[in-house]
Please model this.
Amino acid sequence: MQLTNRSKVVSNKVQTAMEQLYLPGILKGMLITGSHLFKRRATVKYPEETRPVAAVYRGWHVLKRDENGAERCTACGLCAVACPAEAITMESAERKKGEEGLYREEKYAKVYEINMLRCIFCGLCEEACPKEAIFLTDRLVDTEYEREDFVYGKSKLTEKVDKRIDVSKRQTLEVAEFKKLPGLKHNEMWDSKKIDKGHKH
Ligand code: SF4
Ligand code: SF4
Model:
């Protein structure tokens, strides 16, 4: 029984002498290749040349500092919980006396790592962060030869005090207001103290 009319009848005809030389096939192939010489190139010579990307392109993450230069991240772990690729790991530590200029909260991330090979650049870590500490940027992740070099630690993620990274395009007032909505899961967790806010107990 024929279900559709999409089936093709395969012919088993005998090749002509010309076809047996494969000349028409070779000529046809060369014509297609030759025609591409005059078309616009679809590739760019990366890394010397890069394609333009959107201002809100989701690339290499940055761990932000506050206006005084202190690290904003309080190692609450919400970004790691939100990450569908389980790409984020961290280790927290308690801020010592005299380190107020280094870390904004009493608890900070001693170790913070993102495995760029696992990351799918979805931006959920950025959305989950209640401290405006992590943002994705328009920077492309470096090319590497070893897998372990794709695990970015704080040295590659934290922005330099004297070389700030502008994330204002991602941190608009609308986004900031949206994040304060009481219905959002991370706000509920934060408000009901289900997570450590970085204070001593
Ligand atoms: S961008 Fe997505 S996949 Fe990558 S670390 Fe953030 S939450 Fe995980
Ligand atoms: S959600 Fe924000 S504050 Fe919490 S660990 Fe992640 S980056 Fe740090």
